[in-house]
Design a protein that fits this description.
It is built from ten helices and three strands, in the order αβαααααααββαα. Helix content is about 65%, strand content about 5%. The longest helix is centred in the N-terminal third of the chain and has 37 residues. With about 240 residues, the protein is mostly helical. About 30% of the residues are buried.
């Protein structure tokens, strides 16, 4: 395959870039949520008796957010990564943690907080990217839903915000999606069950990309010299492409 050439007309190239950015930030957001899902399973399995969703979410949030007094906005400012490369590297680390059926390390739990807040800070004013998320993802389950939640809670206590986010986007959404899969396709995908408001019978899971087209994208990136084929590291041209205005 040719390793040089145009990405197409400027307008089309910009649209493609916006869509891929939306795809990847949504993917990274789900990877972080998956880490928290495995941590919820670990917490529910270690207690001697069934524990309420609120108690588990609060326990997880106390690990995910070390500063018990900071607002969501202030915590975001203190944790935010400086560039896209840092977010990519952290996302890759969290993917490795989420791809094994075991309880994540505390560093992965806090890393998930950092990645989600960094993504929110970088893209919350990016109207085109957020519009793409709104059009192409299920309302309330995607990064756009997470961003809207953080928008509404920017001045609230950060630890409380993360606890509420975990309850809504990790626990409630998992139960809803698993119920839909069972009802429509007969597939049992529950990672835990709800008994009288408590989580029981937790099972760790493995994360996989939501779309198989990621393989095609990586092939394109290597052929276009955006990613080094031998090391898998983003090249200078790749960094410039990611950071293009």
């Amino acid at each position: 395959m040719c390793k040089s050439g145009s990405l197409g007309a400027p307008s089309q190239g910009g649209q493609n870039l916006t869509r891929w950015r939306a795809y990847f930030l949504n993917e990274f957001c789900h990877i972080a949520l998956e880490v928290w899902l495995n941590e919820i399973v670990g917490l529910s399995n270690q207690v001697a008796e069934p524990t309420s969703v609120e108690a588990l979410a609060s326990s997880l949030a106390s690990t995910a957010v070390s500063d018990e007094k900071a607002s969501t906005e202030d915590l975001t400012a203190s944790l935010a990564l400086s560039d896209l490369g840092g977010e990519h590297d952290l996302g890759a680390e969290l993917l490795a943690a989420a791809s094994t059926k075991r309880r994540p390390e505390a560093s992965a739990v806090t890393g998930s907080t950092r990645l989600i807040l960094s993504l929110w800070l970088r893209w919350r004013e990016a109207t085109q990217v957020r519009d793409e998320l709104f059009r192409e993802t299920v309302e309330g389950r995607s990064a756009e839903g997470v961003f809207r939640f953080l928008d509404l809670n920017s001045s609230a206590n950060a630890r409380l915000t993360i606890a509420k986010l975990i309850k809504k986007f990790v626990v409630s959404n998992h139960l809803m999606i698993a119920g839909q899969k069972l009802a429509t396709g007969g597939r049992f995908t529950y990672r835990f069950t709800l008994d009288d408001g408590c989580l029981v019978d937790g099972e760790f899971g493995e994360y996989t990309y939501t779309q198989p087209r990621i393989t095609n994208l990586l092939t394109f990136a290597r052929d276009a010299d955006l990613v080094d084929e031998s090391t898998g590291v983003i090249t200078v041209a790749g960094a410039e492409f990611l950071n293009a205005a």
